[in-house]
Design brief:
By secondary structure, the chain is mostly helical. It has two domains: 76 residues, Helix-hairpin-Helix base-excision DNA repair enzymes (C-terminal) (Endonuclease Iii, domain 2, Orthogonal Bundle); 102 residues, Hypothetical protein, domain 2 (Endonuclease III, domain 1, Orthogonal Bundle), CATH 1.10.340. The chain contains eleven helices and no strands. The longest helix is centred in the middle third of the chain and has 19 residues. The chain starts with 5 loop residues before the first helix and ends in a 30-residue tail after the last helix.
Length: 216
Amino acid sequence: MKHMKPMEIMDQIASMFPDAKCELNHANVYEMAIAVILSAQTTDASVNRVTPALFAKYPDIESLSEAELSDIEQLIASLGLYRNKARSIRNFAKAVVENYNGEIPQSMEDLTSLPGVGRKCANVIQGECFNIPSLAVDTHVSRVSRRLGLAYSKDDVDTIERKLKRKIPADRWIRSHHQMIFFGRYLCHSRNPECCRCPFTEICHEKNKNFKEKAA
């Protein structure tokens, strides 16, 4: 199997998706944090369909913290796990209001102490809202990392995050996160990856490669 250095891989992905960015619509830190929590196990597009009405009714963290759970559920009912997510975002808002005077904190420790926020969410909030070097590992990043040999197939997301941060310079963590997501979302799909368009087929660990051209 051909070998490529990690930064050769990342440079190639960067050249393919130079304009990759967060696709969750948001206008401020509050909206970003809520959108990230809602995005668990669902697509950004699905989240973007429900957040306009949600933020119109609850324009700030104080109003969301005082919302009726049933009202939140109604607004996000098209999302998977919407009841759990409604509870998570209201409890998140309550905790920020009660523990941080309504200001969403910046540190990993403080963010992950909040309801609904794990390392992935915290990394996204840090990078997107505060420009703190961070590298969130979602399903796309973990799949691409395993397929391209940047991590082992048995590695969990925390291990993948540590490995990527060792292999990629800190000033590229945020960009690399978005570029790997775009590569996974728009080419290296979980099922039926578009291997006919991929420059990494010789190093890829995916057993079920797909070289069929998509119909026009």
